[in-house]
Structure of 3-hydroxy-2-methylbutyryl-CoA dehydrogenase:
Amino acid sequence: MQLDSSIAAIVTGGASGLGAATARRLAGHGVKVALFDLNAEQGEALAREIGGVFCQVDVTSEEQVDAAFAKARAAHGQERVLVNCAGTGNAVKTASRDKATGEIKHLPLANFDRTIQINLVGTFRCIAKSAAGMLTLDPLEDGERGAIVNTASAAAVDGQMGQAAYSASKAGVAGMTLPIARDLMNEGIRVNAILPGLFDTPLLMGAPEHVRAALAASVPFPKRLGRPAEYAALAELLITNGYFNAECVRLDGALRMAPR
């Protein structure tokens, strides 16, 4: 797929981090970009910067997602590209003992469910609704109608302590890549996933410098945190290279995460 002003795209989690970098890169090719995010201040500012449209949306809400797709399509037409970056994370052990008091606690199921609902169900919700819209489009070269890129994580494969919910959600994103690609293969819609490692996103920007340095040092090479622009470059490749389909691609500097 060639990226130009004839293409409309939606980027979830597009107001910051990986999503914002991807939105900027797509817009740099003239693509009409709609940003789905909860953060209205950042989302509106970025939309003005790139000449896009912002849609305030919680991906766990069917009604808000429907309204966001309607707003984006009214502004730009039916999207051919969807990049799912909306997500959340936490670090709580499945069960643990307080060293001082001996009190035993477990991960609240509401906490687990929220992570699954945002990272996995929210991603699938956007995929299904976007793909249904893409089916209405005329095919391009090779019969292609659209391209979808999802964000899993290296934690889908080697999650750390406290990441049961996060790893389960991201493993689900990776695991559904092939069957969804197969569901959509006769309609010319490709589906791929990126498994980022440690990236310099807002989640880590607020960490103390010694923590950031330790994380960077744990990456085999290059010994630094990943840059959102590097994620965006890979997302672009997965969109423009028509032979990429049903792939889960690690982007982590050869990192294999330790237990903690």
Observations:
- Residues 110 and 253 are 34 Å apart (CA to CA).
